[in-house]
Amino acid sequence: MQSQVNFEELYIQLQRKVSTESHKRLDPLVSGSQAMLLRILDMSGPQKASSIAERMNITPGAVTSLADKLIACGYATRNRDSKDRRVVQLDITDQGKDILRQYKAVVRSTIEQFFAGVSDEDKQHLVRIYHQVLKNIDQQREEH
């Protein structure tokens, strides 16, 4: 029982510290949700808000709010489809690609700092564990 309590306490403590440190380092660029939206646009090209919402597991209204901020900063554009003017798609700008590159670099260096001193073997164990936890989460989501 004691080891379970320690595990839970460590998990909560780790989550808080990672979240706090990540926000400190990354928020000056863009929020995590904004970066995720930019990443989707960068990888998949122009997308409708409804498609992005589905991939991010948020509402189309939340995507619109994120997009408005990105558009105001010059990181994304909102364009009407040439074939169907009712369809509006979001796209990433060159400036958005630049900020996404910066964001990814900060994420990479942050992860390297967080895991300094952790052996490659232990990192591989973590990768296996993370995959299992993600699988568990997906299974629970499907059941509910």
TrEMBL record:
InterPro entries the UniProt entry points to: HTH_MarR-typ, WH-like_DNA-bd_sf, WH_DNA-bd_sf
Swiss-Prot/TrEMBL keywords: DNA-binding, Transcription, Transcription regulation
Taxonomy, superkingdom: Bacteria
Gene Ontology terms, MF aspect: DNA binding; DNA-binding transcription factor activity
Pfam families found in the cross-reference section: MarR
Signal peptide as annotated in the record: none
Keyword Transcription regulation belongs to the record: yes
Domain HTH marR-type, first and last residues per copy: 1-135
SMART domains: HTH_MARR
SUPFAM superfamilies: Winged helix' DNA-binding domain
Keyword DNA-binding: yes
The protein's name: Transcriptional regulator
Species for this entry: Brevibacillus formosus
Lineage: Bacteria, Bacillati, Bacillota, Bacilli, Bacillales
